[in-house]
Every structure is written in structure tokens, then in C-alpha cells.
Amino acid sequence: MNERLAPLDGIKVLDLSRVLAGPWCSQNLADLGADVIKVERPDTGDDTRSWGPPYLKDANGVDTGEAAYYLSTNRNKRSIAIDIASPDGADLVREMAARCDILVENFKVGGLKKYGLDYETIKAINPRLIYCSITGFGQTGPLASLPGYDFMIQGMGGLMSITGERDDLPGGGPQKAGVAVTDIITGMYAAVAILGALQERNRSGLGQHIDLALLDCHVAMLANQNLNYMTSGIAPKRAGNAHQNVVPYQVFASSDGHLIVATGNDSQYRAYCQAIGRPDLAVHPDYATNSQRLVNRVVLIKELETIMKTRTRDDWIAALQKVGVPCGPINNIEQVFANPQVKAREIWKTMPHPLAGTTPTTASPIRYSETPIQYRMAPPLLGQHTDEILKELGLEHRAR
Fold first, then answer.
1. Distances from the Cα of 313 to the Cα of 9, 136, 301, 317, angstroms
2. pLDDT value for 291
3. Do 249-338 and 12-221+347-392 fall under one CATH topology?
4. 398 and 95 Cβ atoms separated by less than 8 Å
5. Of 37, 112, 123, whose CA–CA distance to 386 is shortest?
6. How far apart are CA 180 and CA 312, in angstroms?
7. 127 preceded by a cis bond (ω within 30 of 0)
8. Is 109 in a helix, a strand, or coil?
9. Are 371 and 7 in contact (CB under 8 A)?
10. At 352, is the secondary structure helix, strand, or coil?
11. Of 134, 253, 346, 365, which sees the most CB atoms within 10 A?
């Protein structure tokens, strides 16, 4: 039986993006089988190539100069070094765009127009092209011309107002997430938008411009917290490790550490009460339903905190898992990769690398039954595939 083609086999992507949101999008497309051509500045390349240490080490333990940050978001791509600021370089990119299905860029609004690489110019060359622009604030609005970065958007977009310990407790105050979640979610929305545009092109034969803003994606990501405000008129506040709408759904201290208990419905709460030896709390009129537990949260949680300190973390996890109560430890990342479930899912992958011999990579969470993700190429060296790409496109005669 012949091996089935990857979902995006035959699709060519011209990637003019750098850092995280755009490369995260294009890495997802590459994992799905698209041929992603990463256009980079000669000599320096993607900004994240120098965002280290840590750097990938070779067989002798010596730094290679390939930063871990860059490696996290550029596998399955090919790199071509082109100076798009030069007339010849910009002309070469236009010729490449004429042969591609998708273009991803994250320049400031209007930043590519001076090079003749804006959507309207490229559309005239290739009306089937799907052109995805990722900016801080979108193509319209009073802030459209401003640069936008993940950290500042986490503040402007409201996430930091609901992340961190309560203001009335020690350590209270705004806190950013530990990962650039705005960039990541924008990259995911970009990939979804592109796949939708590909389906539309299958019907109409036409491409289109996709306008994605970090701020838009960030606000959309707030999900239930937005609706908490929109339906009540009251802006949610920081709640530390507690949940705004569900009780008990938080971190508890045990006798030797901490664990998370997440009772998502009343039946799980009743099972939890049985497991901790307090079935009376399951039927108490102040706590029998989640709505009642929300109203009486302070008194109930004080009672539960006392109980949870009487046994070890692992004892509680074993007891709660036995009766189907969602719970778990708070792991550091070393512990995450040592977890038997993570090992069973093979989330740590290793790929051949031209300088280091091998490089680790985090597996895609997409698990297809018929066309599994292929880990074809390590994140490329700067300009590694320049000659190869130009030859394939019949453009080897062009200056770079």
C-alpha cells in the first residue's frame, strides 16, 4: 500500500515572518506537509537565532549558535537568504510569490509596500495567493501603525488583570503568563484562517488577504472571562489559583507540597467530598450546587484547606484519581518530560541536525489516524536551502 500524502502536500508557503506568531503559524502548516520557504535576512536571519543562551550544542558540548528559541518554532522549513530591501531581492520575492499558494508576513502595517511586496501588488501577480498579515493591532484603527509585542498585549488585552495572586494577598498584582501566549494563539488563529481560505479557494479559485492582530486574538482568547464581564458589567479580577466560576477548582497545600483539584461539576464535587472523608459537605445546603459554592466560597475553601493539609500530595492524588476527581501535581518542565503519559505520547522528539548531529523538538499535538505528522527537517541553518530553492523555481540565475 502506498503511503498517503500529508494533508498539505503540494502547498507552497512563502514565509516572510520572524520571531514567534508568524513562524508558529508556518510551522503548523509545515507539520501538515506544506513546503514552507523561510525568507531571511542575509547574515543575521530571524531575530530569534540570537536569542540565547541556551544554544543547541554539538557532539562535543560546544554551542552551535542555533538558539533554543529559534529551534522551537522552525522545523520542517527550508531557509533562503534574500535582502528584500534591495530591488533585486524584492523582485525575486515577487517571482517566488507568483509560484506560491500562501504568504505569511508580520511586518508593520504598510512596511512591505515600499518594497512592492504588499498584498495589492502581489495579488495582481497571483490572484490565487492567500496573503496572511500578522500585526500588533491590525490593518485598521487608531493604533494600526504602532508595533505590538506579546508582553505589552498581555497587559493591554486584559490577561494580566486576571492573572496572578489576588491584590489583597501577599504577592498580589499583575502577572504575565510564562509563555508568549498571545503570539502562540495568534499563530494558531493564523493557521486556522489560512486553512479556511484554502477551502474557499477550492470553491472560488481566488485567494484573499487575512488581517490578523495580536490584540484581536488576545481579547478573543479571554473566552469565558469576556462573557463574565459582558453579562454582568463587572470586570473580573485576579483570583490567584482559584477559578472565577467553579468551586473547588484551585491549588491546595498538602502536608508536603501542592496539588490541583478541579471539580468541574456537582457529581465530581460529591465524589471529592467522599474521598476526603466529608460526605456531609456534599449535601450541605450551602454547598450542594456550584452556584451555592460560589456564594459561600470563602467559608468552604477554608474548611477544605484544613482537610487537605492532613495528607501528602501523592496520597491525595491517588485517592482522588481512584474516584474520578480531576487532580494533579504542579510539575516543572523537567518533571513534565519525565511523566509516563508524556513519554507514552512521545512528545519529546529527536531530529537529525547538520551542525549538532541531532536536535530535540516538541512533537505536534495533532495526531491524525491516516496521515501522521512527519518530522522531515530540523530547523534550517540560515540560507541552508537558498541554491536548492532557486534551482527548483528555475530562478538560479537571479541575484540574491
1. 48, 42, 17, 6
2. 97
3. no
4. yes
5. 37
6. 33
7. no
8. coil
9. yes
10. strand
11. 134
Query: Which among 364, 370, 366 has a CA at the least distance from the CA of 5?
Result: 370
Instruction: Report the C-alpha gap between 56 and 15 in whole angstroms.
Output: 23
| 3-class state of residue 318 by DSSP | helix
**C-alpha to C-alpha distance for 181 and 385, rounded to whole angstroms:** 31
Distance, CA of 39 to CA of 325 (rounded, Å): 49
Instruction: Tell me which fold the domain 12-221+347-392 belongs to.
Output: Rossmann fold (3.40.50)
**Can you spell out the DSSP letters for 205-256?**
S---EEEEEHHHHHHHHTTHHHHHHHHHS------TTS-SS-SSEEEEE-SS
Concatenating the DSSP letter of every residue in 259-302 gives: EEEE--SHHHHHHHHHHTT-THHHH-TTTSSHHHHHHTHHHHHH
* Active-site residue, 150 included: no
Q: List pLDDT tens digits, range 331-382.
A: 999 999 999 999 999 999 999 999 999 999 999 999 999 999 999 999 999 9
Q: Among the options 35, 183, 211, 216, which is catalytic? A: 183
Per DSSP, 117 falls in state -
Q: Contact 28/51 with Cβ under 8 angstroms?
A: no
Domain coordinates of the chain in residue numbers?
12-221+347-392, 249-338
Percent of the chain whose pLDDT exceeds 70: 98
**The C-alpha cell that represents 198 in the structure block:** 484554502
Topology of the domain covering 249-338:
formyl-coa transferase, domain 3 (3.30.1540)
Amino acid at 128: R
Q: What is the mean pLDDT of the chain?
A: 95
How far lies 81's CA from each of 197, 279, 383, in Å?
28, 67, 5
Q: Kindly report the number of other CB atoms within 10 A of residue 173's CB atom.
A: 11
Q: What is d(CA 338, CA 345) in angstroms, rounded to the nearest whole number?
A: 12
User: E strands, the chain, where?
Assistant: 12-15, 35-40, 55-57, 63-67, 77-81, 102-105, 130-135, 209-213, 249-253, 258-262, 327-329, 348-353, 357-362
Q: Which residues, including other chains, have CB under 8 Å from residue 334's CB and lie 6 or more apart?
A: none
Q: Could you give the dihedral angle defined by the CA atoms of residues 349, 353, 358 and 363, in that order, rounded to the nearest 10 degrees?
A: -10
In whole angstroms, give the CA distance from residue 9 to residue 3: 12
- Which amino acid, 249? Y
**Distance from C-alpha of 193 to C-alpha of 395, rounded to nearest angstrom:** 30
377: which 3 cell numbers?
A: 527537517
